Amino acid sequence: MKTIAIVSRKGGAGKTTLTLHLAVAAQIKGKEVAIIDLDPQASAAGWGDSRTQETPVVVSAQAARLPKVLQTAKGAGADLAIIDTAPHSETAALAAIRGADLILIPCRPAILDLRAISDTIDLVNLAKKTATVVLNAVPPRGSLADEAIEAISSYGLDVAPLRLGHRAAFVHSLTVGQTAQEYESTGKAAEEIQQLYKWVCRQLKM
Ligand SMILES: Nc1ncnc2c1ncn2[C@@H]1O[C@H](COP(=O)(O)OP(=O)(O)OP(=O)(O)O)[C@@H](O)[C@H]1O
Ligand SMILES: [Mg+2]
């Protein structure tokens, strides 16, 4: 089983959106997926409850229990575990980072988000790991994304070659217990997440 941690100490960066979308993208490709929600706000778990399908399984957990929960997911035959974290819990983010094969940091291409990224980098460094930034909610026009890539590179972080645009389908789909691929399978949001998932598979060699 491979494990992805989605972390960012900035609230609203897109952690839950990325978690749920990658999970369903993997499921569509035939993977058994477990979502582990370490956020006490339980947004991912709430989305799981609002779905008509039973999968992907969403487990709400506390950071201290993460190793055990990952072990259980593996024992149950999961191919992939994706951990959603809270912005303000250092303990949970660190636990997720330590348990992960791939660490993704969603980041909006906006100055406040870029400034806040150093807090997240500190945690990744503390665990002696490396992480990749995924630009999220990128506006359709303008040079913000390019400027963001330059700023992120100056922190020595990698930026994923695929990004997610600022798209209504990412929002509306979650509201009805789906993801963009299920809600509007031929839309741009669905295409973006499909491409990002392919890149994730290459990183994880799966
Ligand atoms: N690519 C996108 N396009 C449009 N809206 C987006 C996009 N990504 C996220 N959003 C919206 O931004 C808000 C925050 O996203 P999300 O809940 O995924 O962030 P988060 O990092 O999990 O937040 P928190 O830190 O509170 O857990 C949500 O309303 C979500 O629907
Ligand atoms: Mg969240």
Can you describe this structure in just a few lines?
47% of the residues lie in helices and 15% in strands.
Give structural notes.
- This protein is of the alpha/beta class and 206 residues long.
- It has a single domain (2-201), classed as Rossmann fold (3-Layer(aba) Sandwich), CATH 3.40.50.
- It is 47% helix and 15% strand.
- Helix 2 links the parallel strand 2 and strand 3.
- Helix 1 (15-28) crosses helix 9.
- The chain starts with a strand and ends with a helix.
- The model has no long low-confidence stretch (mean pLDDT 97).
- The site of adenosine-5'-triphosphate has 18 residues, from helix 1 and helix 7.
